[in-house]
Design goal:
The complex is a heterotrimer.
Chain A (H helix, E strand, L loop, with lengths): L2 H17 L25 H40 L5 H6 L15 H32 L2 H16 L2 H20 L6 H25 L3 H9 L4 H30 L2 H7 L16 H8 L8 H32 L1
Chain B lengths: L7 E2 L7 E12 L3 E7 L2 E3 L3 E6 L5 H8 L7 E9 L2 E2 L7 H7 E4 L10 H11 L5 H14 L3 H4 L12 H13 L5 E5 L7 H14 L4 E5 L3 H7 L2 E6 L2 E7 H6 L4 H11 L1
Parallel strand pairs in B: 1-12, 5-10, 5-11, 8-9, 9-10
Antiparallel strand pairs in B: 2-3, 2-4, 2-6, 6-7, 11-12
Helix pairs in contact in B: 3-4, 3-6, 4-6, 6-7
Chain C lengths: L2 H34 L5 H5 L12 H32 L4 H15 L2 H15 L6 H25 L3 H9 L4 H30 L38 H11 L5 H34 L4
Classes of the chains: A mainly alpha, B alpha/beta, C mainly alpha.
The complex binds adenosine-5'-diphosphate and magnesium ion.
Chain lengths: 333, 264, 295
């Protein structure tokens, strides 16, 4: 700025100040209040307010902790009764395919449900991941803002669709097609996996989008500036940086699949049969629970055995939780 | 390490002091000390400017005075107010803050109407008399030199005001509680020159009735409106004197260097 | 392959996969709406469901869903708000807070069937509430709390620290600052969170089949006495919701028009989710504009 400009600027500011000159008011009443020193050492309204308010918030959080504690406690006690009270062998529970708890403690083998649950979970996540990553890449690296936000709202909508609706679609669309192609009933792991695929796809996608968006823009710019192609930038920089969080996204998807009950139960067939192929009826932990808990009497072995399945579900959900944390910690390093 | 012992620290008669700190230390996270052994006296009905480089502990010091640092820092030492050490566990900080108001760097009006901004704390305090509230609103706004600009739109959102008006509203909001002391942390740093000048005018007027302690990074501003100036360096109050002396005849070499650097 | 060919190839693969997904999504939404909407008549919404024959509606299920949603929100909102206030305003950054956060995460990742079974054990059996709206609402509260709490916490955290300082510097208590300044400023986000979680509750079935039950009872919509067993407001009566209804007609399959009824109910649920999603955004934005209006 030249000297003249500076002078001009000064003038402008001074004029502005002059034209807005504050009218000096005489301060009348308003002035300091006499300080009541005693007040400073006594509790006041605010002190009590704070006490109760804080108390309320502690109460609320305490309630939630109590709640989680009691869920784990209740399910734990009932689930373990099978082993401690009814003396079912834990190894047998995990490795036998003989599931007929009404016939006695030697017929409590949950392997069918365990295998089926893991199969539908792994398969659906395996199929959904490439699609989810592709859609997420499209939304963050290729699409216009508008297209991306449109896809985003569709995906949010799909996350929100009730699982029974997915189950119903599986029942009316997927099962008949499988039946037509492979024969049999159409119920089974394939149907369950396809339904779960659709259900976890939006979950994994939206978390992957978050993961990709968290990669700083300047990483991409730096890579592009070095002459990398778009794909090189994505593969070597973006995906690499985002990998831990994408893994987390997949695990969240798997957790959702593993714990999903009704949608799977509607298409899996619910027969406790070892799945030798993907198109014969089988049973997951959740589907067995859903269909059988109403048929058993509290306190019986048959009932406790089901609670053991619930406990297994709970343990797996804790396991997924821990896995997410471990990846998070690794990623932070 | 340079010698950071105080070059000169002004003191006042006991009857003239509005607020006094004695050997104030502030530690963040229990271990990281950012303010050292600060003993300053603030004179009634005066404006004291706190100057010093960014990070020298001015805000840390200021926020300790009305116990705003309670949750983030450990403050050791005494803060004497009307003969009472208010840096003690049994002090009612809510009442203290009503007597020692504070205005921040960025104007922070509530997303409520102008009227509600000023009356909110009073109503929370139990004041229900509408007539009295209206009077206080007018007086506070007049005292903050904002009345004429907003008297016709008291029910409009405070967020619609300009930055300078918002800051004066924040002053009016503090005045409504009729405090004795007002702490200001770089109150003009987010304002344009015109608003700054208005704000300074307002502060100069308020000196009649209030004691003010103001952090500023603007040397001209300190020179224009303050009566006393304290210079902070690396968490130490190095020098405290009349503003005239600090700017014309600083005692410490660091003070001199800082002031020359800032003006140069 | 050169780098450019690779780039072209990768782009092609991505577009191909996205294409499949788009067709899939469009197919799903289209299928639900096209098959369901034609059956979704006023008669369907206002007539009783039938257990055996075709031609039933979903009047009671619709009411039950709404009633459960309202009750659950009334029970869970204060708790979630309190817990969120604790987490965002009072909690210090220490191991206890970490533990509490993990606890909430665990609750949010529990399979809803497990939550339902727990509700069955505790409310239906232990407390003797039986299959009832009350048991259902309490179980749904468990299901709803973690998500709602973290949504509200996010909204509270979004309020600038300078607002809290402003309140505290005026001698307000923390609590008054939170209640009078922080929460109102966070209200748009809180409302969005409540509405979105409402959508989840509305469509939830696994939590309810063993708590609120799978059948309805005779309901009299003119009986406003909540203590009367036939009153629509009675919380001790068993209540099948829309989502449970879909599940039941498809797994028990007695009525001949199960597919049509499910399609219509499914379309209804999806419509409600869409409405919830849109209104969450709309009200959130509206309120935000109102609060920050520069007028
Ligand atoms: N909440 C806090 N936690 C930890 N350190 C802080 C905090 N606030 C300020 N500090 C540190 O204390 C020192 C003094 O800061 P401050 O008082 O804000 O300086 P000034 O206001 O003079 O610019 C700085 O080094 C700053 O990083
Ligand atoms: Mg500062």
């Amino acid at each position: 700025m030249s000297k003249k400009d500076t002078e001009n600027l000064k003038d402008v500011v001074n004029q502005a100040i002059d034209s807005q000159q504050v009218v000096h008011v005489k301060l009348k009443d308003i002035g300091q209040k006499d300080v009541d020193i005693d007040k400073l050492t006594r509790p006041s309204k605010e002190t009590h307010q704070e006490y109760w308010g804080r108390g309320l918030s502690y109460l609320a959080i305490g309630l939630i902790i109590l709640l989680v504690g009691s869920i784990i406690g209740f399910v734990g006690i009932h689930g373990l009764a099978t082993f401690f009270r009814d003396h079912v062998n834990l190894w047998q529970f995990l490795s036998s395919t003989d599931w007929d708890p009404t016939s006695g403690p030697n017929h409590v083998g949950a392997l069918v449900m365990i295998v089926t649950s893991f199969l539908v979970t792994l398969l659906s996540a395996l199929v959904a991941t490439p699609f989810a990553v592709a859609v997420a890449l499209f939304m963050t690296e290729y699409a216009s803002k508008k297209a991306a936000s449109f896809l985003q709202s569709i995906i949010e909508l799909l996350v929100g669709i009730p699982s029974v609706v997915y189950g119903f679609l599986g029942l009316t669309l997927v099962v008949p097609v499988i039946r037509a192609i492979f024969g049999g009933t159409g119920f089974g792991i394939l149907a369950g996996m396809l339904v779960l695929f659709v259900m976890v796809l939006p979950t994994i996608t939206s978390l992957t989008v978050d993961a990709l968006n968290a990669v700083p823009k300047h990483f991409r710019q730096a890579s592009a500036a070095l002459g990398a192609t778009h794909w090189q930038t994505i593969a070597r920089v973006v995906l690499k940086v985002a990998t831990p969080r994408i893994l987390t996204a997949v695990i969240f998807g798997m957790a959702r699949a593993f714990g999903e009950a009704l949608a799977v139960q509607m298409v899996i067939g619910n027969a406790v049969l070892m799945p030798y192929n993907l198109v014969t009826p089988s049973s997951t932990l959740t589907s067995q629970l859903t269909t059988q808990i109403g048929n058993t009497v509290m306190g019986t072995l048959a009932n406790n055995a089901l609670w053991s399945l619930a406990l297994l579900l709970l343990v797996m959900s804790l396991f997924f939780n821990i896995l997410v944390r471990m990846i998070g910690k690794k990623g932070a390093k | 390490m340079e010698n950071l012992s105080p070059a000169f620290i002004t003191t006042f008669e006991a009857s003239e002091r509005a607020l006094t700190t004695e050997h104030l230390d502030v530690l963040y996270g229990g271990t990281i000390q950012k303010l050292f052994d600060t003993s300053l006296q603030f004179k009634k009905n005066s404006i004291t400017a706190l100057i010093g480089a960014s990070g020298s502990g001015k805000s840390t010091f200021l926020r300790s005075l009305n116990r705003m640092n309670d949750t983030v820092a450990t403050v050791n030492g005494k803060i004497m107010f009307h003969g009472l050490n208010v840096n003690q566990a049994n002090i009612n900080v809510y009442e203290l803050r009503k007597s020692i108001g504070m205005v921040f760097q960025k104007p922070n009006p509530f997303p409520k109407s102008i009227y509600d901004n000023i009356t909110y704390a009073l109503r929370a305090d139990g004041e229900k008399n509408q007539q009295k509230l209206a009077t206080i609103v007018e007086e506070s706004l007049r005292a903050a030199a904002l009345w004429d600009e907003v008297k016709d739109k008291l029910n409009q959102s405070a967020l619609a005001l300009s930055g300078g008006q918002q800051q004066r509203l924040c002053i009016a909001r503090a005045l409504a509680l009729r405090p004795e002391i007002i702490l200001l942390d770089e109150p003009a740093s987010a304002l344009d020159p015109v608003s700054t000048s208005k704000l300074e005018d307002t502060l100069k007027q308020l000196r009649e009735k209030y004691t003010m302690v103001m952090v500023t990074h603007n040397m001209q501003q300190a020179a224009r409106i303050s009566d006393y100036t304290a210079f902070f360096h690396l968490g130490h109050a190095i020098e405290y004197d009349t503003t005239t002396n600090i700017f014309t005849n600083p005692q410490g070499a660091i003070t001199e260097a800082y002031i020359q650097g800032s003006f140069g | 392959m050169t780098e450019h060919q690779k780039d072209r190839f990768a782009t092609g693969v991505i577009y191909f996969l996205v294409g499949i997904v788009v067709i899939l999504l469009a197919g799903i939404l289209g299928n639900i709406l096209i098959n369901g909407l034609p059956h979704l008549s006023w008669h369907f919404l206002t007539s009783e469901s039938s257990d055996f024959q075709a031609g039933g509606g979903v009047r009671d299920q619709l009411f039950n869903s709404v009633y459960l949603l309202v009750l659950t929100t009334i029970i869970s909102l204060p708790i979630a708000l309190g817990a969120a206030i604790y987490l965002s305003e009072y909690a210090r950054d220490n191991w206890i807070t970490h533990l509490i956060r993990s606890t909430i995460e665990i609750l949010s990742s529990l399979p809803s069937i497990v939550v339902g079974l727990f509700g069955y054990l505790l409310f239906v059996v232990q407390f003797g509430f039986g299959f009832s709206i009350l048991s259902g609402a309490l179980a749904l509260t468990f299901f709803n709390l973690p998500i709602l709490t973290s949504n509200i916490e996010e909204s509270l955290k979004g309020v600038s620290a300078t607002q809290r300082e402003a309140g505290l510097a005026l001698g307000l208590s923390n609590w008054k600052t939170i209640r009078g300044i922080v929460v109102p400023a966070a209200l748009p986000g809180i409302i969005t969170g409540v509405v979105l979680s409402g959508g989840r509750i509305f469509g939830e079935a696994a939590t309810l089949i063993y708590t609120a039950g799978q059948s309805g009872s005779l309901v009299d919509y003119h009986n406003w006495n909540p203590l009367s067993p036939t009153s629509f407001l009675n919380v001790m009566r068993p209540a099948e919701t829309l989502a449970v209804h879909i599940w039941k007609v498809n797994t028990e399959g007695i009525i001949s028009d199960a597919t049509a009824v499910s399609a219509a109910t499914g379309a209804l649920l999806v419509l409600v989710v869409i409405i919830f999603n849109l209104s969450a955004r709309y009200f959130g934005n509206k309120l935000y504009q109102k609060l920050t209006a520069a007028k």
